[in-house]
């Protein structure tokens, strides 16, 4: 029997999009013959995923997982092709399994994630699970991105509209704070805030410098265009930048549940009431399908192409 190398498994996977373990089995069953291995996968129905690999998967869900200790949290965007499939129990269960695996296995990126053995069944990799789900569900399935926070403080997640938006936030506190219901509610309120208000940074010094400079240029041009005297333009621009910070910085934003308070003010209130230190460390906000160009069906073009075939 011919030796099956990692390079052969990789090539077969690239040609069929089947799972890595299935590719290895196919090569072993076919004595290393690539064409026979492809036929073997097709006979088993495992190469069907290859036909779906070029499709656009822009629907799906943002799934979440928080460990029992509350110290590790994950959000993961898992995509499919249609909203109908995104709402099915099988797809949602698959996405939740991916989020749980990420929390436990700590991959550094999606590429590493795909090669890891699934924490609940080490006979399969995550890549194998994706291929199996693609075949079973009948649509292209892909894991697009994830965020994983591990902390000595508190993490909280929020999923909006059945997975359209997902948020993960980390709050620093002490041992007493980790057990405080007030702190947990504050972390939850932060996640709601981030989902609704779409901040770009936690605090002012974290705002992208290029975006900030661009905003200054825009506001200066607007002030000059409106005929404002040159001597007060700088003051006007500074005022507009202050408003900009209140839009994009989480700590400067008005609290969506009580616009008379800023998030920084809310944090000070909760810290005093609970008797613990608090700080917002970081957050991630995913909106399903953002930045993916969805496929536009052109029936006339499809019919014309079929007639030429």
Fill in the keyword field for this structure:
309 residues; alpha+beta; 14 helices; 50% helix
Strand order across the largest sheet: 1-2-5
End-to-end span in angstroms?
Answer: 42 Å
Regions with little confidence, pLDDT below 50 for 5+ residues: none
Q: Calculate the mean pLDDT score and round it.
A: 90
Reading the helices and strands in chain order gives HHHHEEHHHEEHEEEHHHHEEHEH
Query: Can you give the helix content as a percent range?
Result: 40-55%
Outline:
It contains 14 helices and 10 strands. With 309 residues, it is an alpha+beta fold.
What this model shows, in words?
This protein has 309 residues and is an alpha+beta fold. It has 14 helices and ten strands. The strands form four sheets. The protein has a three-stranded antiparallel beta sheet with strand order 1-2-5. β8 and β9 form a beta hairpin. α1 (6-16) crosses α3 (34-43) and α2 crosses α3 (34-43). The model has no long low-confidence stretch (mean pLDDT 90).
Describe how the helices and strands are arranged.
Blueprint: H1 6-16, H2 20-29, H3 34-43, H4 48-52, E1 59-66, E2 72-80, H5 83-86, H6 89-105, H7 110-115, E3 117-118, E4 121-125, H8 126-137, E5 142-150, E6 154-160, E7 165-172, H9 175-179, H10 181-197, H11 209-225, H12 230-248, E8 254-255, E9 258-262, H13 263-274, E10 279-287, H14 299-308
Helix pairs in contact: 1-2, 1-3, 2-3, 6-8, 10-13, 11-12
């Amino acid at each position: 029997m011919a030796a099956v190398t990692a390079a052969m498994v990789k090539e077969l996977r690239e040609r069929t999009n089947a799972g890595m373990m299935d590719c290895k089995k196919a090569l072993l069953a076919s004595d290393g013959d690539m064409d026979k291995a492809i036929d073997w996968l097709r006979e088993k129905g495992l190469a069907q995923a290859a036909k779906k690999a070029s499709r656009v998967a822009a629907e799906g869900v943002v799934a979440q997982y928080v460990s029992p200790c509350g110290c590790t949290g994950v959000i993961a965007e898992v995509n499919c092709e249609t909203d109908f499939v995104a709402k099915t129990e099988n797809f949602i269960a698959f996405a939740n399994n991916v989020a749980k695996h990420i929390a436990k296995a700590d991959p550094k990126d999606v590429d590493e994630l795909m090669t890891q053995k699934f924490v609940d069944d080490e006979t399969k990799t995550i890549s194998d699970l994706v291929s199996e789900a693609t075949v079973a569900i009948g649509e292209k399935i892909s894991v697009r991105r994830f965020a994983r926070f591990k902390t000595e403080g508190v993490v909280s997640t929020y999923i909006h509209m059945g997975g359209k938006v997902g948020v993960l936030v980390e709050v620093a506190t002490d041992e007493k704070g980790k057990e405080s219901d007030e702190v947990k509610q504050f972390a939850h309120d932060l996640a709601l805030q981030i989902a609704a208000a779409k901040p770009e940074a936690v605090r002012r010094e974290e705002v992208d410098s290029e975006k900030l400079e661009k905003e200054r240029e825009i506001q200066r041009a607007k002030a000059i265009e409106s005929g404002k005297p040159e001597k007060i333009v700088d003051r006007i621009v500074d005022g507009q930048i202050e408003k900009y910070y209140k839009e994009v910085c989480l700590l400067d934003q008005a609290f969506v549940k009580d616009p008379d308070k800023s998030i920084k003010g809310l944090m000070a209130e909760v810290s005093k009431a609970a008797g613990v230190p608090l700080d917002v460390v970081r957050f991630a906000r995913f909106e399903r399908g953002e930045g993916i160009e969805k496929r536009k069906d052109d029936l006339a073009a499809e019919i014309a192409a079929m007639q030429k075939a």
